[in-house]
Fold:
Amino acid sequence: MVKKPTLKYAGDQGLLVEFGDKIDVKLNDEVRNLTFQLDQSKEEWIIDLVPSYKSLLVIFNPTLATRKYIENYILELAIDLGETSESTDRVIKIPTLYGADFGMDLEFVASNSNLTTKEVISLHSEPNYRVYMIGFAPGFPYLGGLNKKLSTPRLDTPRIKIPSGSVGIAESQTGIYPNDSPGGWQLIGRTPLSLFDTNREQPSLLVAGDYIKFEPLESLEEYSDIKADIESNNYKLEINQLDNRENSQSDRHE
Amino acid sequence: MNEKSITILEPGLLSSIQDTGRYGFQRYGVPVSGAMDNFALRAANVLVGNKMNAACIEMTVLGPSIKFNYPSLISITGGDLSIKLDGQKVDRWSAIQVETGSILTSDGIQDGMRAYLAINGGINVPIIMGSRSTYIPAGFGGYKGRPLMGGDTLLVGEPNPTTKHEERTLPEDLEPVHYGHSHIIRVVLGPQNTNFTSAAVNTFFDSRYIVSNNCDRAGYRLNGPTLQHETSADIISDGTQIGSIQVPADGNPIILMSDRGPTGGYAKIGTVISTDLGLIAQSRPEDNLVFRQVSVKEAEAAFFEQESILYSIDPTLFKNASNKVKSALSETSSSLSPYIYEDLKKVQRNATVKIKGKTFTFGISIESN
Structure:
Protein backbone atom coordinates (compact mmCIF):
# COMPACT_ATOMS: atom_id res chain seq x y z
CA MET A 1 0.00 0.00 0.00
CA VAL A 2 1.47 3.25 -1.15
CA LYS A 3 1.14 6.42 0.81
CA LYS A 4 -1.28 8.82 -0.84
CA PRO A 5 0.45 11.60 -2.72
CA THR A 6 -0.29 15.23 -1.87
CA LEU A 7 -2.12 17.45 -4.33
CA LYS A 8 -1.04 21.08 -4.52
CA TYR A 9 -2.49 23.85 -6.64
CA ALA A 10 -0.48 25.06 -9.58
CA GLY A 11 -3.01 27.72 -10.53
CA ASP A 12 -6.57 26.95 -11.62
CA GLN A 13 -5.58 24.54 -14.41
CA GLY A 14 -2.67 22.66 -12.88
CA LEU A 15 -2.24 20.17 -10.05
CA LEU A 16 1.12 19.19 -8.62
CA VAL A 17 1.02 15.58 -7.43
CA GLU A 18 3.80 15.14 -4.86
CA PHE A 19 5.03 11.74 -3.69
CA GLY A 20 7.67 12.95 -1.25
CA ASP A 21 10.33 15.56 -0.75
CA LYS A 22 13.62 13.97 -1.69
CA ILE A 23 15.50 12.66 -4.70
CA ASP A 24 14.92 8.95 -4.55
CA VAL A 25 14.55 6.21 -7.16
CA LYS A 26 11.41 4.80 -5.51
CA LEU A 27 9.62 8.16 -5.48
CA ASN A 28 10.74 8.77 -9.04
CA ASP A 29 9.34 5.34 -10.01
CA GLU A 30 5.96 6.36 -8.61
CA VAL A 31 6.03 9.57 -10.63
CA ARG A 32 6.89 7.56 -13.71
CA ASN A 33 4.14 5.01 -13.06
CA LEU A 34 1.47 7.64 -12.49
CA THR A 35 2.56 9.38 -15.69
CA PHE A 36 2.27 6.07 -17.53
CA GLN A 37 -1.17 5.32 -16.05
CA LEU A 38 -2.53 8.76 -16.90
CA ASP A 39 -1.15 8.45 -20.44
CA GLN A 40 -2.91 5.11 -20.79
CA SER A 41 -6.17 6.42 -19.37
CA LYS A 42 -6.84 8.65 -22.40
CA GLU A 43 -8.90 10.89 -20.14
CA GLU A 44 -9.65 13.84 -22.37
CA TRP A 45 -9.21 16.54 -19.71
CA ILE A 46 -5.47 15.82 -19.57
CA ILE A 47 -3.62 18.50 -21.53
CA ASP A 48 -0.07 17.68 -20.46
CA LEU A 49 1.96 15.80 -17.86
CA VAL A 50 5.30 17.09 -16.59
CA PRO A 51 7.09 14.46 -14.52
CA SER A 52 10.03 15.53 -12.34
CA TYR A 53 12.12 13.99 -9.53
CA LYS A 54 9.33 13.38 -7.02
CA SER A 55 6.23 15.05 -8.41
CA LEU A 56 4.01 15.13 -11.46
CA LEU A 57 2.48 18.35 -12.76
CA VAL A 58 -0.90 17.61 -14.35
CA ILE A 59 -2.21 20.34 -16.64
CA PHE A 60 -5.90 19.93 -17.33
CA ASN A 61 -8.75 21.41 -19.33
CA PRO A 62 -11.39 22.64 -16.85
CA THR A 63 -14.12 22.58 -19.47
CA LEU A 64 -14.00 18.79 -19.79
CA ALA A 65 -14.21 17.59 -16.17
CA THR A 66 -14.87 18.97 -12.74
CA ARG A 67 -12.02 19.62 -10.33
CA LYS A 68 -13.48 17.07 -7.94
CA TYR A 69 -13.52 14.39 -10.63
CA ILE A 70 -9.94 15.15 -11.66
CA GLU A 71 -8.58 15.15 -8.10
CA ASN A 72 -10.36 11.89 -7.23
CA TYR A 73 -9.26 10.27 -10.47
CA ILE A 74 -5.60 11.05 -9.80
CA LEU A 75 -5.70 9.97 -6.15
CA GLU A 76 -7.46 6.69 -6.90
CA LEU A 77 -4.99 5.89 -9.65
CA ALA A 78 -2.05 6.76 -7.40
CA ILE A 79 -3.08 4.25 -4.74
CA ASP A 80 -2.95 1.34 -7.19
CA LEU A 81 0.38 2.16 -8.79
CA GLY A 82 2.53 -0.54 -7.19
CA GLU A 83 1.50 -3.59 -9.19
CA THR A 84 0.71 -1.92 -12.47
CA SER A 85 4.11 -0.44 -13.08
CA GLU A 86 5.65 -0.59 -16.48
CA SER A 87 8.67 -2.72 -15.70
CA THR A 88 10.92 -2.19 -18.68
CA ASP A 89 14.03 -0.42 -17.52
CA ARG A 90 16.03 0.53 -20.58
CA VAL A 91 19.77 1.08 -20.40
CA ILE A 92 20.89 3.16 -23.36
CA LYS A 93 24.57 3.09 -24.31
CA ILE A 94 26.06 6.51 -24.88
CA PRO A 95 29.31 6.15 -26.87
CA THR A 96 31.61 8.90 -25.60
CA LEU A 97 35.04 10.11 -26.54
CA TYR A 98 36.69 11.32 -23.35
CA GLY A 99 39.43 13.94 -23.10
CA ALA A 100 41.42 15.83 -25.74
CA ASP A 101 39.55 18.60 -27.58
CA PHE A 102 36.16 17.14 -26.66
CA GLY A 103 36.81 17.02 -22.91
CA MET A 104 39.11 19.92 -22.24
CA ASP A 105 38.40 19.85 -18.49
CA LEU A 106 39.19 16.15 -18.02
CA GLU A 107 42.66 16.94 -16.63
CA PHE A 108 41.20 19.48 -14.22
CA VAL A 109 38.55 17.05 -12.98
CA ALA A 110 41.30 14.45 -12.48
CA SER A 111 43.61 16.73 -10.52
CA ASN A 112 40.68 18.11 -8.51
CA SER A 113 39.75 14.54 -7.54
CA ASN A 114 43.34 13.33 -7.02
CA LEU A 115 42.84 10.74 -9.73
CA THR A 116 44.43 9.97 -13.08
CA THR A 117 42.41 10.80 -16.20
CA LYS A 118 42.12 7.06 -16.81
CA GLU A 119 40.55 6.59 -13.38
CA VAL A 120 38.10 9.43 -14.04
CA ILE A 121 37.00 7.81 -17.30
CA SER A 122 36.66 4.44 -15.62
CA LEU A 123 34.62 5.78 -12.67
CA HIS A 124 32.44 7.94 -14.94
CA SER A 125 31.64 5.16 -17.41
CA GLU A 126 30.95 2.51 -14.75
CA PRO A 127 27.42 3.25 -13.43
CA ASN A 128 24.01 3.01 -15.04
CA TYR A 129 22.80 6.55 -14.53
CA ARG A 130 19.11 7.04 -13.85
CA VAL A 131 17.32 9.68 -15.96
CA TYR A 132 15.21 11.25 -13.21
CA MET A 133 13.64 13.83 -15.46
CA ILE A 134 14.15 15.84 -18.61
CA GLY A 135 13.88 19.57 -18.40
CA PHE A 136 15.73 22.89 -18.44
CA ALA A 137 16.18 22.61 -22.22
CA PRO A 138 14.82 20.28 -24.92
CA GLY A 139 16.19 16.77 -24.27
CA PHE A 140 18.38 17.69 -21.28
CA PRO A 141 18.52 14.71 -18.87
CA TYR A 142 18.85 15.14 -15.11
CA LEU A 143 21.01 12.13 -14.19
CA GLY A 144 21.53 10.51 -10.82
CA GLY A 145 24.38 8.27 -9.78
CA LEU A 146 27.65 10.15 -10.26
CA ASN A 147 30.46 8.72 -8.13
CA LYS A 148 31.03 11.25 -5.35
CA LYS A 149 34.79 11.14 -5.98
CA LEU A 150 34.18 12.92 -9.29
CA SER A 151 32.28 15.87 -7.82
CA THR A 152 33.85 19.06 -9.26
CA PRO A 153 32.77 22.71 -8.97
CA ARG A 154 31.44 24.56 -12.02
CA LEU A 155 33.67 26.85 -14.05
CA ASP A 156 34.09 30.31 -12.53
CA THR A 157 33.11 31.84 -15.85
CA PRO A 158 30.66 29.88 -18.02
CA ARG A 159 31.67 29.21 -21.62
CA ILE A 160 29.74 31.09 -24.31
CA LYS A 161 29.19 28.03 -26.45
CA ILE A 162 29.32 24.39 -25.53
CA PRO A 163 28.90 22.02 -28.49
CA SER A 164 25.93 19.64 -28.47
CA GLY A 165 26.74 16.17 -27.17
CA SER A 166 29.25 17.50 -24.63
CA VAL A 167 29.40 15.43 -21.45
CA GLY A 168 30.08 17.41 -18.31
CA ILE A 169 30.24 17.45 -14.53
CA ALA A 170 28.88 20.14 -12.22
CA GLU A 171 29.15 19.53 -8.49
CA SER A 172 27.59 16.10 -7.87
CA GLN A 173 25.77 15.96 -11.21
CA THR A 174 26.75 14.72 -14.61
CA GLY A 175 24.91 15.47 -17.82
CA ILE A 176 24.91 15.83 -21.57
CA TYR A 177 24.20 19.05 -23.48
CA PRO A 178 21.55 18.23 -26.12
CA ASN A 179 22.12 21.44 -28.10
CA ASP A 180 24.84 24.03 -28.52
CA SER A 181 24.38 26.30 -25.53
CA PRO A 182 26.27 28.44 -23.04
CA GLY A 183 27.23 26.64 -19.86
CA GLY A 184 29.52 26.33 -16.89
CA TRP A 185 29.95 22.57 -16.55
CA GLN A 186 33.38 20.90 -16.59
CA LEU A 187 33.59 19.13 -19.95
CA ILE A 188 35.11 15.67 -19.93
CA GLY A 189 33.98 14.23 -23.27
CA ARG A 190 31.49 14.25 -26.09
CA THR A 191 29.02 11.80 -27.62
CA PRO A 192 28.17 11.73 -31.33
CA LEU A 193 24.56 10.85 -30.45
CA SER A 194 21.94 13.53 -30.86
CA LEU A 195 19.84 13.77 -27.69
CA PHE A 196 17.25 16.01 -29.30
CA ASP A 197 16.33 16.27 -32.95
CA THR A 198 13.05 17.77 -34.16
CA ASN A 199 13.38 15.75 -37.40
CA ARG A 200 12.76 12.55 -35.47
CA GLU A 201 9.25 11.37 -34.76
CA GLN A 202 10.26 11.22 -31.09
CA PRO A 203 12.66 14.15 -30.86
CA SER A 204 14.02 13.25 -27.43
CA LEU A 205 16.41 10.27 -27.30
CA LEU A 206 15.71 9.73 -23.60
CA VAL A 207 12.60 9.43 -21.48
CA ALA A 208 12.35 9.96 -17.72
CA GLY A 209 12.93 6.59 -16.05
CA ASP A 210 15.54 5.42 -18.58
CA TYR A 211 19.08 4.54 -17.54
CA ILE A 212 22.15 5.46 -19.53
CA LYS A 213 25.66 4.06 -19.57
CA PHE A 214 28.62 5.89 -21.03
CA GLU A 215 30.76 3.71 -23.31
CA PRO A 216 34.30 5.08 -23.73
CA LEU A 217 35.46 5.29 -27.35
CA GLU A 218 39.08 4.51 -28.23
CA SER A 219 39.76 7.10 -30.86
CA LEU A 220 38.55 10.06 -32.87
CA GLU A 221 38.17 7.68 -35.85
CA GLU A 222 35.69 5.59 -33.90
CA TYR A 223 33.78 8.75 -32.93
CA SER A 224 33.73 9.95 -36.54
CA ASP A 225 32.58 6.55 -37.82
CA ILE A 226 29.61 6.56 -35.45
CA LYS A 227 28.81 10.14 -36.36
CA ALA A 228 28.84 9.19 -40.06
CA ASP A 229 26.60 6.19 -39.37
CA ILE A 230 24.15 8.40 -37.50
CA GLU A 231 24.05 10.89 -40.34
CA SER A 232 23.39 8.15 -42.91
CA ASN A 233 20.78 6.51 -40.66
CA ASN A 234 22.91 3.37 -40.27
CA TYR A 235 23.55 3.64 -36.56
CA LYS A 236 21.82 1.19 -34.29
CA LEU A 237 21.29 2.47 -30.77
CA GLU A 238 22.39 -0.10 -28.21
CA ILE A 239 19.67 -0.67 -25.65
CA ASN A 240 19.83 -3.28 -22.90
CA GLN A 241 17.53 -4.29 -20.10
CA LEU A 242 18.59 -3.27 -16.63
CA ASP A 243 19.31 -6.59 -14.92
CA ASN A 244 20.13 -5.56 -11.42
CA ARG A 245 18.42 -2.40 -10.43
CA GLU A 246 19.51 -2.44 -6.77
CA ASN A 247 23.18 -2.37 -7.69
CA SER A 248 22.86 -0.14 -10.68
CA GLN A 249 22.92 2.97 -8.61
CA SER A 250 21.56 4.03 -5.30
CA ASP A 251 22.44 7.64 -4.89
CA ARG A 252 20.49 9.73 -2.48
CA HIS A 253 21.17 13.39 -2.97
CA GLU A 254 21.19 15.00 0.41
CA MET B 1 -1.09 34.93 -57.17
CA ASN B 2 -3.50 32.02 -56.97
CA GLU B 3 -2.28 30.63 -53.73
CA LYS B 4 -3.83 31.84 -50.54
CA SER B 5 -0.94 33.66 -48.96
CA ILE B 6 0.22 36.84 -47.30
CA THR B 7 3.58 38.55 -47.66
CA ILE B 8 5.47 40.26 -44.86
CA LEU B 9 6.80 43.61 -46.14
CA GLU B 10 8.29 44.89 -42.86
CA PRO B 11 8.71 42.61 -39.84
CA GLY B 12 7.79 45.00 -37.02
CA LEU B 13 9.61 44.70 -33.70
CA LEU B 14 8.95 41.03 -32.90
CA SER B 15 6.37 39.18 -34.92
CA SER B 16 6.07 35.41 -34.73
CA ILE B 17 3.62 32.66 -35.54
CA GLN B 18 1.87 31.28 -32.47
CA ASP B 19 -1.09 29.08 -31.66
CA THR B 20 -2.42 27.89 -28.30
CA GLY B 21 0.85 26.09 -27.54
CA ARG B 22 2.85 22.91 -27.85
CA TYR B 23 1.56 20.45 -25.28
CA GLY B 24 2.66 16.85 -24.79
CA PHE B 25 6.41 17.41 -25.05
CA GLN B 26 7.19 19.24 -21.82
CA ARG B 27 8.35 15.92 -20.38
CA TYR B 28 11.15 16.03 -22.95
CA GLY B 29 12.13 19.55 -21.95
CA VAL B 30 10.25 21.27 -24.77
CA PRO B 31 8.65 24.59 -23.74
CA VAL B 32 4.95 25.12 -24.48
CA SER B 33 5.42 28.45 -26.31
CA GLY B 34 2.14 29.67 -27.86
CA ALA B 35 0.40 33.01 -27.58
CA MET B 36 1.31 35.12 -24.56
CA ASP B 37 -2.28 36.42 -24.48
CA ASN B 38 -4.04 33.15 -25.13
CA PHE B 39 -7.53 34.62 -24.77
CA ALA B 40 -6.86 37.33 -27.36
CA LEU B 41 -5.54 34.71 -29.81
CA ARG B 42 -8.56 32.47 -29.34
CA ALA B 43 -10.95 35.41 -29.70
CA ALA B 44 -9.18 36.43 -32.94
CA ASN B 45 -9.69 32.91 -34.27
CA VAL B 46 -13.36 32.75 -33.29
CA LEU B 47 -13.96 36.11 -34.97
CA VAL B 48 -12.86 34.74 -38.37
CA GLY B 49 -14.44 31.30 -37.95
CA ASN B 50 -11.22 29.39 -37.23
CA LYS B 51 -10.72 26.64 -34.70
CA MET B 52 -9.56 28.27 -31.49
CA ASN B 53 -6.06 26.80 -31.80
CA ALA B 54 -5.35 28.02 -35.35
CA ALA B 55 -2.01 29.75 -35.91
CA CYS B 56 -1.97 33.56 -35.84
CA ILE B 57 0.69 36.25 -35.97
CA GLU B 58 1.65 37.57 -32.55
CA MET B 59 2.87 41.17 -32.93
CA THR B 60 4.81 43.03 -30.28
CA VAL B 61 4.96 46.81 -29.70
CA LEU B 62 5.25 47.62 -33.43
CA GLY B 63 3.33 45.38 -35.79
CA PRO B 64 4.51 44.20 -39.22
CA SER B 65 3.45 45.49 -42.64
CA ILE B 66 1.62 42.76 -44.49
CA LYS B 67 0.30 42.45 -48.04
CA PHE B 68 -2.69 40.19 -48.64
CA ASN B 69 -2.38 38.18 -51.85
CA TYR B 70 -6.04 37.12 -51.98
CA PRO B 71 -9.36 38.33 -50.58
CA SER B 72 -9.62 37.16 -46.99
CA LEU B 73 -11.27 37.66 -43.66
CA ILE B 74 -9.05 38.82 -40.80
CA SER B 75 -9.31 40.06 -37.23
CA ILE B 76 -7.05 41.95 -34.84
CA THR B 77 -7.30 41.45 -31.08
CA GLY B 78 -5.25 42.17 -27.98
CA GLY B 79 -3.35 45.43 -27.49
CA ASP B 80 -3.76 48.53 -29.64
CA LEU B 81 -0.76 48.74 -31.99
CA SER B 82 -2.44 51.42 -34.17
CA ILE B 83 -3.13 48.99 -36.96
CA LYS B 84 -4.30 50.34 -40.28
CA LEU B 85 -5.61 48.71 -43.42
CA ASP B 86 -4.73 50.70 -46.54
CA GLY B 87 -4.22 53.73 -44.33
CA GLN B 88 -7.51 53.46 -42.43
CA LYS B 89 -7.54 52.54 -38.77
CA VAL B 90 -9.20 49.15 -38.31
CA ASP B 91 -11.76 48.09 -35.73
CA ARG B 92 -10.16 45.73 -33.30
CA TRP B 93 -12.00 42.66 -31.96
CA SER B 94 -14.03 42.43 -35.14
CA ALA B 95 -13.92 40.49 -38.42
CA ILE B 96 -12.68 42.58 -41.35
CA GLN B 97 -12.87 41.80 -45.07
CA VAL B 98 -9.60 42.48 -46.94
CA GLU B 99 -9.06 42.52 -50.70
CA THR B 100 -6.21 41.30 -52.89
CA GLY B 101 -3.34 43.76 -52.59
CA SER B 102 -4.58 45.31 -49.35
CA ILE B 103 -1.78 46.37 -47.02
CA LEU B 104 -1.86 46.24 -43.25
CA THR B 105 0.48 48.55 -41.31
CA SER B 106 1.15 49.47 -37.70
CA ASP B 107 2.04 52.85 -36.22
CA GLY B 108 3.09 51.26 -32.95
CA ILE B 109 1.85 50.73 -29.48
CA GLN B 110 -0.99 52.76 -27.99
CA ASP B 111 -2.24 50.38 -25.35
CA GLY B 112 -1.10 46.95 -24.15
CA MET B 113 1.94 45.17 -25.53
CA ARG B 114 0.90 42.48 -28.00
CA ALA B 115 -1.74 42.08 -30.69
CA TYR B 116 -2.91 39.08 -32.71
CA LEU B 117 -3.76 38.83 -36.39
CA ALA B 118 -5.99 35.91 -37.32
CA ILE B 119 -6.87 34.97 -40.91
CA ASN B 120 -9.78 32.77 -41.91
CA GLY B 121 -8.08 29.41 -42.57
CA GLY B 122 -5.19 29.94 -40.17
CA ILE B 123 -1.52 30.38 -41.06
CA ASN B 124 -0.36 27.14 -42.57
CA VAL B 125 3.17 26.38 -41.44
CA PRO B 126 4.34 22.82 -40.67
CA ILE B 127 3.14 21.27 -37.42
CA ILE B 128 6.14 20.46 -35.24
CA MET B 129 5.41 18.30 -32.19
CA GLY B 130 1.70 19.01 -32.44
CA SER B 131 1.90 22.77 -32.77
CA ARG B 132 2.64 25.60 -35.19
CA SER B 133 4.02 27.87 -32.45
CA THR B 134 7.48 29.35 -32.89
CA TYR B 135 10.02 28.57 -30.17
CA ILE B 136 12.65 31.12 -31.11
CA PRO B 137 15.46 30.18 -28.66
CA ALA B 138 15.82 26.66 -30.13
CA GLY B 139 14.79 27.69 -33.65
CA PHE B 140 11.85 25.40 -34.35
CA GLY B 141 8.15 25.78 -35.12
CA GLY B 142 6.42 28.67 -36.82
CA TYR B 143 8.08 29.97 -39.98
CA LYS B 144 11.61 28.53 -40.11
CA GLY B 145 11.80 28.66 -36.32
CA ARG B 146 12.39 32.39 -36.27
CA PRO B 147 10.62 35.75 -36.00
CA LEU B 148 9.05 36.93 -39.25
CA MET B 149 11.21 38.95 -41.65
CA GLY B 150 10.50 41.19 -44.63
CA GLY B 151 9.97 39.09 -47.76
CA ASP B 152 8.51 36.05 -45.97
CA THR B 153 5.44 34.68 -47.74
CA LEU B 154 3.11 32.68 -45.51
CA LEU B 155 0.55 30.23 -46.80
CA VAL B 156 -2.93 30.30 -45.34
CA GLY B 157 -5.14 27.22 -44.83
CA GLU B 158 -8.52 26.56 -46.41
CA PRO B 159 -10.95 29.20 -45.18
CA ASN B 160 -14.10 28.31 -43.29
CA PRO B 161 -16.72 29.21 -45.93
CA THR B 162 -19.57 29.55 -43.45
CA THR B 163 -18.11 32.56 -41.66
CA LYS B 164 -20.28 35.60 -42.26
CA HIS B 165 -18.14 38.52 -41.26
CA GLU B 166 -21.02 40.83 -40.46
CA GLU B 167 -21.97 38.43 -37.68
CA ARG B 168 -18.50 38.21 -36.22
CA THR B 169 -17.91 41.02 -33.79
CA LEU B 170 -18.23 41.68 -30.12
CA PRO B 171 -21.83 42.25 -29.06
CA GLU B 172 -22.83 45.91 -29.13
CA ASP B 173 -22.62 46.48 -25.41
CA LEU B 174 -19.13 45.01 -25.22
CA GLU B 175 -16.12 47.24 -25.68
CA PRO B 176 -12.56 46.17 -26.40
CA VAL B 177 -10.66 46.06 -23.14
CA HIS B 178 -8.39 49.00 -22.35
CA TYR B 179 -5.34 47.62 -20.58
CA GLY B 180 -3.74 50.77 -19.17
CA HIS B 181 -0.70 50.73 -16.93
CA SER B 182 -1.97 49.36 -13.64
CA HIS B 183 -3.23 45.85 -13.33
CA ILE B 184 -4.78 43.85 -10.55
CA ILE B 185 -3.61 40.29 -10.97
CA ARG B 186 -5.40 37.45 -9.24
CA VAL B 187 -3.21 34.68 -7.86
CA VAL B 188 -3.81 31.21 -6.41
CA LEU B 189 -1.32 30.41 -3.62
CA GLY B 190 1.17 27.61 -4.08
CA PRO B 191 2.55 25.15 -4.78
CA GLN B 192 5.50 26.23 -2.58
CA ASN B 193 4.01 29.12 -0.57
CA THR B 194 5.13 27.39 2.64
CA ASN B 195 8.75 27.94 1.61
CA PHE B 196 8.13 31.63 2.37
CA THR B 197 7.69 33.48 5.66
CA SER B 198 4.10 34.51 6.35
CA ALA B 199 5.35 38.11 6.31
CA ALA B 200 6.60 37.56 2.77
CA VAL B 201 3.22 36.20 1.66
CA ASN B 202 1.51 39.26 3.18
CA THR B 203 4.02 41.59 1.56
CA PHE B 204 3.43 39.97 -1.80
CA PHE B 205 -0.31 40.68 -1.66
CA ASP B 206 0.00 44.11 -0.03
CA SER B 207 2.51 45.73 -2.31
CA ARG B 208 2.81 47.25 -5.71
CA TYR B 209 5.28 45.62 -8.09
CA ILE B 210 6.78 47.23 -11.16
CA VAL B 211 7.41 45.33 -14.37
CA SER B 212 11.17 45.50 -15.05
CA ASN B 213 12.85 45.86 -18.43
CA ASN B 214 13.64 42.20 -18.14
CA CYS B 215 10.37 40.89 -19.54
CA ASP B 216 9.99 38.67 -22.55
CA ARG B 217 8.16 35.59 -23.77
CA ALA B 218 9.91 33.41 -21.17
CA GLY B 219 9.06 35.49 -18.13
CA TYR B 220 8.46 38.83 -16.44
CA ARG B 221 10.90 39.94 -13.74
CA LEU B 222 9.38 42.33 -11.23
CA ASN B 223 10.83 45.02 -8.99
CA GLY B 224 9.33 45.75 -5.59
CA PRO B 225 9.59 44.58 -2.00
CA THR B 226 11.77 41.47 -1.82
CA LEU B 227 10.31 38.26 -0.42
CA GLN B 228 12.04 36.27 2.30
CA HIS B 229 12.15 32.51 2.20
CA GLU B 230 11.35 30.61 5.37
CA THR B 231 13.27 27.56 4.22
CA SER B 232 15.11 27.84 0.94
CA ALA B 233 14.72 29.46 -2.45
CA ASP B 234 15.92 26.25 -4.03
CA ILE B 235 13.61 23.30 -4.38
CA ILE B 236 14.08 19.90 -5.97
CA SER B 237 13.26 20.88 -9.56
CA ASP B 238 9.64 20.34 -10.55
CA GLY B 239 7.17 21.24 -13.29
CA THR B 240 6.33 24.89 -13.97
CA GLN B 241 2.93 26.15 -15.06
CA ILE B 242 2.31 29.26 -17.15
CA GLY B 243 1.82 32.05 -14.60
CA SER B 244 3.98 30.38 -11.94
CA ILE B 245 5.54 33.08 -9.76
CA GLN B 246 8.98 31.85 -8.82
CA VAL B 247 11.20 33.67 -6.35
CA PRO B 248 14.98 33.05 -6.43
CA ALA B 249 17.23 33.74 -3.45
CA ASP B 250 17.40 37.49 -4.26
CA GLY B 251 13.70 37.73 -3.34
CA ASN B 252 12.51 39.29 -6.62
CA PRO B 253 9.50 37.54 -8.18
CA ILE B 254 9.52 36.28 -11.77
CA ILE B 255 6.28 35.39 -13.54
CA LEU B 256 6.89 32.48 -15.91
CA MET B 257 5.25 32.82 -19.32
CA SER B 258 4.89 30.95 -22.63
CA ASP B 259 8.56 30.18 -23.41
CA ARG B 260 9.44 29.11 -19.83
CA GLY B 261 11.46 25.96 -19.26
CA PRO B 262 9.06 23.10 -18.38
CA THR B 263 10.88 22.51 -15.08
CA GLY B 264 12.49 24.85 -12.61
CA GLY B 265 14.33 24.80 -9.32
CA TYR B 266 13.05 27.91 -7.51
CA ALA B 267 10.21 28.02 -4.97
CA LYS B 268 6.91 29.25 -6.42
CA ILE B 269 4.82 31.44 -4.11
CA GLY B 270 1.73 31.36 -6.31
CA THR B 271 0.31 31.10 -9.81
CA VAL B 272 -1.42 33.83 -11.80
CA ILE B 273 -4.94 32.64 -12.65
CA SER B 274 -5.43 31.73 -16.30
CA THR B 275 -7.88 34.59 -16.87
CA ASP B 276 -5.33 37.22 -15.85
CA LEU B 277 -2.38 35.87 -17.87
CA GLY B 278 -3.47 38.14 -20.71
CA LEU B 279 -3.02 41.16 -18.45
CA ILE B 280 0.57 40.10 -17.79
CA ALA B 281 1.14 39.59 -21.53
CA GLN B 282 -0.24 43.08 -22.17
CA SER B 283 1.79 44.82 -19.44
CA ARG B 284 5.08 46.51 -20.24
CA PRO B 285 8.11 47.82 -18.36
CA GLU B 286 7.20 50.37 -15.65
CA ASP B 287 3.59 49.13 -15.41
CA ASN B 288 2.18 48.53 -11.91
CA LEU B 289 0.99 45.15 -10.75
CA VAL B 290 -0.95 44.49 -7.55
CA PHE B 291 -1.59 40.87 -6.65
CA ARG B 292 -4.79 39.69 -5.05
CA GLN B 293 -5.22 36.24 -3.58
CA VAL B 294 -8.20 34.21 -4.79
CA SER B 295 -9.37 30.64 -4.29
CA VAL B 296 -9.31 28.11 -7.13
CA LYS B 297 -13.11 28.32 -7.14
CA GLU B 298 -12.99 32.05 -7.78
CA ALA B 299 -10.32 31.48 -10.42
CA GLU B 300 -12.50 28.93 -12.19
CA ALA B 301 -15.52 31.23 -12.09
CA ALA B 302 -13.40 33.99 -13.63
CA PHE B 303 -12.25 31.57 -16.34
CA PHE B 304 -15.77 30.61 -17.37
CA GLU B 305 -16.83 34.23 -17.22
CA GLN B 306 -14.11 35.10 -19.73
CA GLU B 307 -14.87 32.04 -21.87
CA SER B 308 -18.43 33.31 -22.21
CA ILE B 309 -17.10 36.12 -24.41
CA LEU B 310 -16.01 33.57 -27.01
CA TYR B 311 -19.40 31.90 -26.89
CA SER B 312 -21.10 35.24 -27.37
CA ILE B 313 -19.10 35.87 -30.57
CA ASP B 314 -20.06 32.51 -32.03
CA PRO B 315 -23.22 30.97 -30.55
CA THR B 316 -22.63 27.72 -32.46
CA LEU B 317 -19.71 27.09 -30.12
CA PHE B 318 -22.19 26.93 -27.28
CA LYS B 319 -24.31 24.38 -29.10
CA ASN B 320 -21.29 22.09 -29.45
CA ALA B 321 -19.83 22.75 -26.01
CA SER B 322 -19.42 20.09 -23.33
CA ASN B 323 -22.09 19.84 -20.65
CA LYS B 324 -19.53 21.13 -18.18
CA VAL B 325 -19.21 24.35 -20.15
CA LYS B 326 -22.96 24.69 -20.53
CA SER B 327 -23.63 24.32 -16.86
CA ALA B 328 -20.69 26.53 -15.87
CA LEU B 329 -21.85 29.27 -18.21
CA SER B 330 -25.38 29.13 -16.93
CA GLU B 331 -24.09 29.43 -13.37
CA THR B 332 -21.68 32.25 -14.08
CA SER B 333 -22.95 35.65 -13.12
CA SER B 334 -21.56 39.10 -13.51
CA SER B 335 -22.11 39.90 -9.86
CA LEU B 336 -18.41 39.84 -8.96
CA SER B 337 -17.82 43.12 -7.22
CA PRO B 338 -15.14 45.49 -8.49
CA TYR B 339 -11.83 45.27 -6.71
CA ILE B 340 -10.87 48.61 -5.30
CA TYR B 341 -7.42 49.43 -4.02
CA GLU B 342 -6.46 52.74 -2.47
CA ASP B 343 -3.87 53.50 -5.08
CA LEU B 344 -5.87 52.18 -7.99
CA LYS B 345 -8.86 54.42 -7.99
CA LYS B 346 -10.84 53.86 -11.09
CA VAL B 347 -11.96 50.34 -11.58
CA GLN B 348 -13.81 49.63 -14.74
CA ARG B 349 -15.62 46.35 -14.99
CA ASN B 350 -18.85 47.35 -16.58
CA ALA B 351 -18.63 45.94 -20.07
CA THR B 352 -21.13 43.12 -20.22
CA VAL B 353 -22.38 40.52 -22.61
CA LYS B 354 -25.68 38.70 -22.67
CA ILE B 355 -25.85 35.02 -23.42
CA LYS B 356 -28.82 32.75 -22.91
CA GLY B 357 -30.51 35.50 -20.96
CA LYS B 358 -27.58 35.90 -18.55
CA THR B 359 -25.29 38.87 -18.34
CA PHE B 360 -21.52 38.47 -18.38
CA THR B 361 -18.65 40.84 -17.75
CA PHE B 362 -15.88 41.30 -20.27
CA GLY B 363 -12.30 41.66 -19.13
CA ILE B 364 -10.98 43.73 -16.32
CA SER B 365 -9.63 47.14 -17.01
CA ILE B 366 -8.12 49.28 -14.34
CA GLU B 367 -6.92 52.85 -14.70
CA SER B 368 -5.00 54.62 -12.01
CA ASN B 369 -5.58 58.33 -12.10
